[in-house]
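Design request, tokens follow.
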């Protein structure tokens, strides 16, 4: 569960395109907080053949679109008054919305800070400052070194490798 949104361990994605002689099926699984492709299969249309050039499909776009669709995108935040959030600035309430948008975008494989900027219709540097403020307020965990996301909380008795 991420900020009230149930995130399944596995998602099955189906994709089609009129220019493809096949349909694509993907299985993606949650791995270290992000959805990752675990298998891809092709179902060739009746009377069609697959050539090697046909296999150049936009895997990342299919993954992101499919995961966002399965999770409801950022629509779980759509009930929020985003104009109010933007106007009041980085209050605790606003930072909770920033954290939720950040986490959902991260799971779906999108740039989390860019997703915050687009959701709130604010410049990217402003979104980055708000993400940092959410971290300082401990609403978002510390960033992984030089990467988007959050460090995992260590349980008692465990040690970092």
């Amino acid at each position: 569960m991420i900020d009230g949104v149930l995130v399944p361990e596995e998602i099955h994605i189906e994709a089609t395109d009129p220019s493809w002689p096949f349909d694509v099926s993907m299985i993606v699984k949650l791995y270290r907080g992000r959805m990752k492709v675990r298998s891809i299969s092709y179902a060739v249309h009746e009377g069609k053949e697959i050539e090697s050039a046909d296999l150049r499909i936009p895997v990342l776009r299919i993954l992101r679109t499919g995961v966002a669709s399965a999770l409801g995108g950022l629509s779980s935040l759509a009930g929020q008054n985003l104009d109010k959030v933007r106007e009041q600035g980085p209050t605790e309430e606003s930072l909770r919305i920033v954290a939720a948008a950040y986490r959902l975008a991260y799971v779906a494989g999108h740039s989390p800070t860019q997703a915050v900027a687009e959701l709130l219709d604010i410049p990217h540097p402003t979104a980055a400052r708000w993400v940092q403020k959410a971290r300082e307020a401990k609403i978002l965990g510390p960033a992984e070194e030089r990467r988007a996301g959050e460090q995992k909380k260590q349980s008692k008795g465990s040690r970092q490798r």
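Comment from the thread starter after seeing the answer: thanks! Strands lie at 10-15, 22-31, 34-44.
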